[in-house]
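Q: Structure for this?
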Amino acid sequence: MKDDPRLLTEGEAEKVEMASLFLPALGRMAVCGGTHGNELSGVYLVQEMERQRKEKGDGVWPIPVTTVLSNPRAVEECRRYIDTDMNRCFSTATLSSPMTDSSPYEVQHAQELNNLLGLKGSADAIDMICDLHNTTSNMGLTLIHYSTSDWVTMHICKYLQTKITKVPVRVLVMDVPISDAYSLESVSKHGFSIEVGPQPHGVVRADIYLIMKEAVDMTIDWIHKFNSGTVFEGGDMEAFKFIKSIDYPRDPETRTLTAAIHPQLQDRDFCLLKRGDPLFLSFSGETVTYEEEGSLHPFFINECAYYEKGIAFHLAKKLTLTIPTVQVKKD
Amino acid sequence: MKDDPRLLTEGEAEKVEMASLFLPALGRMAVCGGTHGNELSGVYLVQEMERQRKEKGDGVWPIPVTTVLSNPRAVEECRRYIDTDMNRCFSTATLSSPMTDSSPYEVQHAQELNNLLGLKGSADAIDMICDLHNTTSNMGLTLIHYSTSDWVTMHICKYLQTKITKVPVRVLVMDVPISDAYSLESVSKHGFSIEVGPQPHGVVRADIYLIMKEAVDMTIDWIHKFNSGTVFEGGDMEAFKFIKSIDYPRDPETRTLTAAIHPQLQDRDFCLLKRGDPLFLSFSGETVTYEEEGSLHPFFINECAYYEKGIAFHLAKKLTLTIPTVQVKKD
């Protein structure tokens, strides 16, 4: 990475010209917390950023930043949601569904956020959303987004992988069409959700808060450098692609869990799962093992909010992505 | 500890006779889970015990055991409580308060549990309640009860301290009059609550479940041995006594937290806190230190359910208790 492409020699400049993608400067960014009201690192980080702006003015950050407490009623009650999971309400279909008095609070509020930050899929949509989440899973810092070909987002992920060394930084790609993508960051042109864990919901841990803060600071840093003309070199980067979900063993009649995540799998998010590895330990002491052929990587292992969704963990495949060199398009 | 006092030599028997307290055999024991509906180890352990009884009959345990899912509506909704914290509803005053249609669900249900397991303070009260709890604090296995002179309970605590080696086992004494004691186990003649952590509320971890199961198994084991005539020798044991609670730093107007537990204090429950030690790290980066004179031991550090109670952690004093040798009184 070179800080000022205007200082390149002629030969170097040609090389950059050849390989570089010239992309528009990024305008405004939104930092959203409390999309799930009991994921507290994001709630307190957004409140702290709002306090800083009040104290020091808009110039506190080198780029324009909007801060949003996404689900204020759920934050107030320290619950994930009031009527329905808001981070499933941002598909194009749900955002354009007709509203009635009996529409779930979160669907109504998702449409308001789309008016504020979107409209999703339009030229008016905000350039970047960072949506802040916590998980009870031992996922370190995980950056989740929807496309392997959004080079701005991929470059920011790569930048965070390079800059943040205290915890593992993984990139997770869902790879679904953006219109079907149902989470808040799909409203913006670029963007990702930031998952940091392990942290119990309803609790804020300083170590987890500081990792989240560093991720937001480094994202702002990247955008500022990019807009200022820094060339970000391409190359290979590691990412994970969502494959499928696995549920807990359950009683066939009552649907209650009959087993917990096995102690040998607990806290080992993104390990390589091989045939015969233990998955679950039943409450009466029997081990359930992984019996599939392909080796995959489990993540969101024992996430609190996924019990009701029928998910004990997700499985992902590891990918190596090649991304191009990017720099800002000059006017 | 000798398994059969009838096998002692004459001289030994005299020594035991001199020092021993002869106490009545213990009858029925209750194992209660789900007093807080989102503390899942106890919920799943009670359900597993009920499954075992169904499969193998009452003889599955060597003593009579009643299993209770204490707050079924809160368990159903995976919430701590519906209207009010049920584990604050078992004082003599609350148990005898008149019921109306608008009485909180938990107060009504506490009175039903008192009818089932009490009456509190009466000769009919059940001999022993183990009430199962989880905490987001790193408290290992902590046994909480109300009196330093309930020798049966103290002996069981000492037995668990000896037998369970995978995690630290601490004994915490609240030392309040039993009529004021507001938690479920105060209904029984003896008893304690079992706290195991760290575990996020709404999550079950196999490692935490197994520790709780071992504590219940060892309690049943002690009662069976005691009833069978085993002499349990007295001596010194370590315990902690509750002194006071400390709240988070909060915004004076909004009452919202302005700081989290400091990373150097987080997860260090029962450490020795000295003047100048860090307590909190504010969201803007300032450290708040411990400025009191006396050295005390913090516990329930960053417990999720205590945010709303205004408690960042409790402080305790370490005690050495001397307990007498006990054995069962023969009919």
